[in-house]
Amino acid sequence: MPDSSGPDSxxxxxxxxxxxxxxxxxxxxxxxxxxxxPTVRAVVNELLEGRATPAQIGGLLLAWRTRGETSSELxxxxx
Length: 79
Known about the structure:
mainly alpha, 4 helices
């Protein structure tokens, strides 16, 4: 399994510890909370590393779309 910690493309460090798990992330989004940049980058890392199921990906996209994506979240996705 590849190491999931280290610098991202923006030079910031992230780790799996920034990822609190799909239930927490989806609950926060459906409650209308904005995800902080380290969490967003950890979620994107989970997606890119293939650790997310199709249901988790669908839940994430649906929750984000329903609540509305913020510019800070989209910016974190692109880093």
